[in-house]
Amino acid sequence: GGAEVARLRDELSLRAAEVALARKELAEKEAAVAELSARPQDVAPEPTSPDPAGVEKVKELEARLAEALARAADAQAAAEAARAAPRADVAPEAAGALQKAVQEKDALVAQIAERDQKISRLQREVADKTDRLGRLAKEMGELKARGLGKIFR
């Protein structure tokens, strides 16, 4: 009777609200993924548009990583040369440079890894939200079908 139809209507509007919320959360997660994909960790957040500047920043991070690796290799070579021909003035300096270069490289690698982890976590959450939206839409479709059957019988 009328009570059943009213209950269905309530359930439908509840589902519609859930869908709206899930869509909003999904949009937020996707924006976060886009933003994270577009910038390294150490840069202040910018308005979330996947802009070319963001892509450039990732390239810049990777370039800095490559430089740090190259510096580490140079410093290592210098340190080994210093060990082979011990000149007290060179060795400590080379060792210091090596250590600094290795720390820089490790910090950058850690930064990139952290960003990638954050992105994949967010992408999993986006997938979950998308699944939930699909389920909610299906439930709403079934509710509507049941409701229409009741109303128009």
How would you describe this protein?
The protein is rod-shaped and about 95 Å long. The protein is built from three helices and no strands. The protein has 153 residues and is mainly alpha-helical. It is 86% helix and 0% strand.
Q: Mean pLDDT across all residues, rounded?
A: 79
Helix content: over 70%
Number of H/I helices? 3
Largest sheet: none
Q: What gross morphology would you assign?
A: rod-shaped
Radius of gyration: 28 Å
Question: What are the secondary-structure elements, in order, as H or E?
Answer: HHH
Q: How much strand content do the residues show? A: under 5%
Key terms for this structure?
153 residues, mainly alpha, 3 helices
Summarize the structure.
The protein has 153 residues and is an all-alpha fold. The chain has three helices and no strands. Helices cover 86% and strands 0% of the residues.
What's the structural blueprint in terms of helices and strands?
Elements: H1 2-38, H2 52-84, H3 91-151
